[in-house]
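Reopening this one. Same input as before:
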Amino acid sequence: MEPLSRRHVLALSAASSAAVAATTAHAATFGNPDRPAEGAVNTNAAARSDPGPKNSILSDQFPSAQSPPPTDVGDMPLFWSSFNIAPKRMQGGGWARQVTQADFAISEAVSGVNMRLAPGGIRELHWHLAAEWGLMTNGACRVTVLDPQGHASVQDVGVGDLWYFPAGFPHSLQGLGSDGCEFVLVFDEGKQSEYNTLLLTDWIAHTPPEILALNFGVPQEVFKSIPLNDLWIFQGKAPGALAKDQAAVASGGTPPNPFTFKLGETQPFKHNRSGTVRLADSSTFKVSKTIAAAIETIQPGAVREMHWHPNADEWQYWIKGEGRMTVFDAGPRSKTADFKPGDIGYVKKNQGHFVQNTGTTELQFVAVFKAPEYQEISLSDWLTHTPPALVAQHLNIDPAELAKFINSRPGIVPA
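Same output, byte for byte:
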C-alpha cells in the first residue's frame, strides 16, 4: 500500500473535521437557520467564555442577552428599558420617575411615568400637551377633571382601574386611605415629560396680581400668600366623602362619557387555563380616543401566541412575574430580551412577537397602543385561514399536519 503523504493526511483530516462539523451543526441547529450559525449551541467552550470585566448583578438579570437563542439574528434597536433604573423625583407628597423617548429611543409614540402618592398626597392641578392614560397598580386615588363644556368629574379609582384625560383637560390626583397609591401613566407623545407639565401654581405665580384680581373678581390681597414655587407633588389633607366632592362640582353637569373605567370587571377578550387578556379601547372606554390597552396575565410556562399589531406600536409595563419576549422584523432580524416587574418593553407596529412566562408565578403586564381601537393579527389564525396547499408549499409540512394547527385564536397557549 502506498504510504500516506502529509498532503493526504491533511486532506483526510480536513474532510473528517468538516464531516463532524456538519453533523454537529445539523444536530445543533435543527429547526434554526444554518447560516449564520448563531447561539451557544453552535460554539465551543472557549468561544462561549466571557473573562472580561462585568457586573454580574446586572448581567445575571438578562440571560437571553448573555446567551441568546440560536434563532436570534441581526441588529435591532433596544426594546427593553425599566423604571427600576430611572431616577425618582421626590417631593413632600410622593415621587415619580419617567422613561421618555429621550431615555428610550425606540419609544416614539408614547412616554411613561410611574408615580407614588402618599395618603393625602396631591399631584397638583395641572394639564398636559398630550393625552394621559393611567392604570392603578396599588392603593386608591381620587381623580378630578374638567372638560371644555364645563362638565366636571370626581371619581375614586382602585387597583386595576383606568383613567383617561384628553390633551388639555385639567385634572388632579390624590392618594387615599392609609397607604395612598401607586400608578403608571402613559402619554400619547414619546417626548412628553413630567417637567413640561402646565401647573396651576406656576401660572398663578407668573401672572401680575392686578390681572389675577380682575380675572377672578376679588381684591389683589387675596393672592398675597400664593406659593412662589410650584407644588408638583405635595402633602395635602385627606379628602372628604366622595359624594360631597361630587356635589360641589355638580353645577356644570355630568360628562357625556366617564373619564374612569373598571378594566378588571370587564369580560375577558381571551381566557383559558393558560391566561387572560382584558381590553379597553374606545369601543368600551369611550372617552379614550387615542389610547387602547390590554392587561395580559400568563401562567407559568405559557406563551402569548405569535402575533403582531397592524395599527400601532406596543408599549408594555411589566407588573408582576418574569418572562422573555422575542421580536421579529424584516432582515431577518430577531432578538430576545428578559423582563421583570417595573420593566418596560416596546414593539414597533407590525413586528411579530411572542412572550413566554419563564418564572414560577403568574406573569402580568399591560400593553398600551396609541390607537383608538385594539387590533391584533394571530400567526396561527392566518396560516389556518390560508389554503392548506399554499401553506404546505411554503413550510414543507404535510397538509394533514397543518390541519392540526390551533385555529381558535386562543391568545395564550399552554406550555
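So the earlier flakiness isn't reproducible anymore. For the record, The first strand starts at residue 80 and ends at 82.
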